[in-house]
Design brief:
By secondary structure, the protein is an all-alpha fold. Helices cover 75% and strands 0% of the residues. The chain is built from 18 helices and no strands.
Length: 397
Amino acid sequence: MTSIVLAFGFFFGCTTLKNNSTQQSPASFDELSAAQIKQRISSIDEQIDAQPKNRDLYLQKGTLLTKWAQQKSRPSKRTALYYKADKALSQAELLSQSKDGVSTKNGIDQLRKVSWSSEHNQGVQLWQDTSTQAEKRRAAIHFENATAIMPDSSTSYLMASRAFYDVGEFSKAIGELERARANISSVPLPLLEALAFLYLDTDQPRQAVPVFKEALSANRPNYNLMHGLSNAYMKANEHSEAVMLLRRLTIKKPSNATYRRSLASQLYLLAQNKTKAALKAPNSINSEFTALDSLLHEANDTFDYLLDKWEKNGDINTEAARYYQNAAGLYQKLLPHLNRSQKEKASNAIDQNLTAALPLMEVLASESDDKRWWQSLYQAYSILGMQQKAKKAKSNL
């Protein structure tokens, strides 16, 4: 099966983001030790139990958790604290929807921006200045911390995913983008595209399909996404969907040989699957024959076009030779179960496919050390009644 080659990558710049804020957190918070912060949070939790609608208590808790996280020298030790801080701050935001909550919301936004900018920019600096795996992973954790602080920051998710990918932590790379997909109300196209190609790159085509569809549904026809989706369909053995999409691509890009080769391959595989299903219920073969024959005729026409336009392409010649031979084999399997008129049609198709395969197989047999081409020639000559050539081909086995 021809596979469309995909370009996997993240296309964004690693630039630091400016923080224009001059607001500082309360000095009393900055001067607290970790033990004091822990004690203060415990006290605030008791107050929250008594006053669950007090937004200022949640803001204080989120601020303390953020300061506690920033006291940790290792970024990996900060992550869980940042997630807890986000939970507290989100509750404070929820309780600040009225007009008198504006100052609280502004304080939350300020705290998030300052903390996010620090973590994100530390990640960018490490990413730009190092080539070691350990430092790249450290950068990834800084970016992950940034997403914990500001869960709608698509840039930080993309950077975290790229960094985890580059150190071989593919599940983490995917996890960052899936978190973004869950946390961002309108997911940017680059993020969906990166996630879809990541699933393909890690041999998870069935997970890639819905992501590609989501990206396509929100945008005008995008050939890179259609290209990726067609490959996901093929890798997932969803031949019917692949055929429908590849038909569209060949119409839009008629000079693209890869799309046509993929279409021909998927048409054959779809016909092969339908043949296997029909043979399990022989009574249905006569009613299914027309559809099967139509698929194979379309594949034949596609290979005929490819051979005409790219006659010197060795890969296309090899694929076509195998296809014609295999298509004849499918008709042979159907032959005993067909009615008289269908048998005549199938017999003609067998002869036509083998006749089309012969010149291609003759070249391949003469130029290749693979004896299977001589075996195929022997079988084709024998079926077509060309006994002298069959005898010669057999002598090369």
